[in-house]
């Protein structure tokens, strides 16, 4: 079973429009409401594809029961932790050309006692044969980046791999602390982490190896429409496919990570192929909908071992 930890969950409200016009009245063609937050999206994707998972997250305020109900309605196992603050609502506007505009609220304040309760919730499931813990998403007010290290240490004490998908200061602190099985930045987040622009495959690979040298096993770099690059100490692989017109890109990276985690135990190229296939399927769905098995097409994904370092990312 895979435990996902979402420290800043949300209710995601998506509005599909023909075209978004700033400063004007815009009318939605359709609306979607989904349980949101990066870790929750990972759990939704795993469950949809038959992988056992439980989602741990704080809940509070009027949208808290709605979040739990949305997940329970589709059969995702949940372990909500009550907090005094109110969880957030995020708003996405997706137009017919595939452009996505997203507004994320800041989220609640989570105090130390509530953070300890989250750690206890994770520990409870670690005692039941968990195969991986993944923390994903932003940190709300009150939770310091060091909390991610506490989670990693909790998993390590049970010899369980710890994966991470976050950005900024929390990612930097966790990478410096080490002990990570995989991190999943996009190319811009990786560039921020190493403090320089990354334009070529070789530059991304070298930056990922810097992260690996600090104690991370693998770096899965999402490149948006240009696929993804997986880097370990021993090799690197690129995967992608023919261009597609996205319906919504929101949550596609979470499906990519879910695909990678679902393929644990397989060779790295196959894990990458699975990850990219899940991500490609996700961008062809509305809102933050996660793909079903019949919508995922690994055969449409090409994998290249040791891609040419001089290639620019736009050439992939």
Describe what this molecule looks like in 3D.
This protein has a single domain (2-315), classed as Ribokinase (UDP-N-acetylmuramoyl-L-alanine:D-glutamate ligase, 3-Layer(aba) Sandwich), CATH 3.40.1190. The radius of gyration is 19 Å and the shape is globular. The longest helix has 15 residues, at 112-126. It has nine helices and 14 strands. 47% of the residues are buried. Strands 5-4-1-8-9-10-11-12-13-14 form a ten-stranded mixed sheet, with helices on both faces. It is 34% helix and 25% strand.
Low-confidence stretches: none
The major beta sheet can be summarized as: 10 strands, mixed
* CATH fold name: UDP-N-acetylmuramoyl-L-alanine:D-glutamate ligase
CATH architecture: 3-Layer(aba) Sandwich
Order of helices and strands: EEEHEHEEEHEHEHEHHEEEHHE
Radius of gyration: 19 Å
Secondary-structure topology with pairs:
Layout: E1 2-5, E2 10-17, E3 30-36, H1 38-48, E4 53-59, H2 63-73, E5 77-82, E6 88-95, E7 100-103, H3 112-126, E8 132-136, H4 146-157, E9 162-165, H5 168-177, E10 180-183, H6 187-194, H7 201-213, E11 216-222, E12 228-232, E13 236-240, H8 252-262, H9 268-282, E14 302-305
Parallel strand pairs: 1-4, 1-8, 2-6, 4-5, 8-9, 9-10, 10-11
Antiparallel strand pairs: 2-3, 6-7, 11-12, 12-13, 13-14
Helix pairs in contact: 1-8, 3-4, 6-7, 8-9
């Amino acid at each position: 079973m895979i435990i996902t930890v979402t420290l800043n969950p949300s209710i995601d409200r998506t509005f599909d429009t023909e075209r978004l016009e700033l400063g004007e009245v815009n009318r939605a063609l359709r609306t979607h409401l989904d349980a949101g937050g990066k870790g929750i999206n990972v759990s939704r994707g795993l469950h949809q594809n038959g992988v056992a998972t439980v989602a741990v997250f704080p809940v509070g305020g009027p949208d808290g029961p709605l979040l739990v109900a949305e997940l329970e309605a589709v059969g995702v196992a949940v372990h909500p932790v009550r907090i005094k603050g109110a969880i957030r609502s995020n708003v996405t506007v997706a137009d017919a050309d595939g452009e996505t505009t997203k507004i994320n609220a800041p989220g609640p304040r989570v105090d130390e006692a509530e953070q300890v309760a989250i750690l206890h919730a994770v520990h409870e499931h670690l005692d039941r044969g968990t195969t991986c813990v993944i923390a994903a998403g932003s940190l709300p007010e009150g939770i310091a980046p060091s909390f991610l290290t506490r989670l990693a240490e909790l998993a390590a004490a049970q010899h369980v791999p710890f994966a991470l998908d976050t950005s900024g200061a929390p990612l930097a602190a966790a990478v410096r602390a080490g002990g990570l099985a995989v991190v999943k930045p996009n190319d811009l987040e990786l560039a921020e982490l190493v403090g320089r622009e990354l334009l070529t495959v070789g530059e991304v690979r070298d930056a990922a190896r810097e992260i690996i040298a600090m104690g991370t096993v693998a770096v899965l770099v999402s490149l948006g429409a240009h696929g993804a690059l997986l880097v370990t100490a021993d090799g690197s692989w690129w995967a992608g496919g023919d261009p597609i017109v996205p319906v919504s890109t929101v949550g596609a990276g979470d499906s990519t990570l879910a695909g990678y985690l679902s393929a644990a135990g397989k060779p790295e190229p196959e894990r990458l192929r699975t990850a990219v296939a899940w991500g490609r399927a996700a961008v062809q769905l509305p809102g933050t909908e996660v793909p079903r098995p019949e919508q995922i097409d690994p055969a449409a994904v090409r994998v290249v071992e040791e891609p040419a370092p001089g290639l620019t990312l736009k050439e992939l």
